[in-house]
Amino acid sequence: MSTTPYGEATWDLVPGHTALVLIDLQNDFLHPEGWYATSGVDISHMRRVIEPTRELVAAARAAGVPVVWTRHGFREETAGTFPTLRPFLRDGGLRQDTWGYEICEELRADGFEDGDFLCHKSRLSGFYLTDLELILRGLHAETVLYGGVLTNQCVAATSKDSNFRDFKTIVVEEATGTTMPHLHDPAIEMMRVGWCQVSALADMTAQLQAMTAPAVT
Question: Which parts of the sequence belong to the Isochorismatase-like domain (predicted)?
Fold first, then answer.
């Protein structure tokens, strides 16, 4: 008899102890006029996250769940090896204090709000040399939902680091996307069997809505 070498996580969403983190949903990644698209990178799979993100954010706000947005960017002196690994970024893109660095216009219109938390990052993990953990601890978060781009890179790295910090980590599958769609499903499976819960959008929005429902007496 063979033994399954992992157990799938199932975490509860607890009022006052849940947060939503959205990774790198910026103009340069998602907008048709952003650096990725204008450099010839196919952004269609990444853009699939826009509507699910709107739905997820709306459900989170209704449930009183705080929303944290990360933005990935750098200045020349802090770029490290990134431009070598992404040659099309050597001359521009993902630069701090530019239009491309900002939260995608399509999400700012009815997703991002001024009361949300913003976290700057310059490496794949949203926890590396950032204040993300400080924000989440300050919010008393125990369970953290994640969406964003890219599935196989920043989402995978951040969710793994989230697990390392003992957060109950949930990745919302429809709210993630990548530039290399053939890597999406393997990355999702890697996360599911390795370090976090992976859930469907409908399941998460239903759980968030249940948090807002009045108690039955």
Answer: 18-193
Tell whether 41 is covered by a domain. Answer: yes
Burial of 15: CB neighbours in 10 Å, binned 0-12, 13-18, 19+: exposed
Per-residue model confidence as pLDDT tens digits over 84-132: 888 999 899 999 999 999 999 999 876 677 789 999 999 999 999 999 9
Pairwise CA distance, residues 130 & 162, whole Å:
13
pTM attached to this predicted model: 0.94
Residue ranges in the chain modelled with pLDDT below 50: 216-217
Q: Is the residue at 101 inside a domain?
A: yes
Amino acid at site 48? R
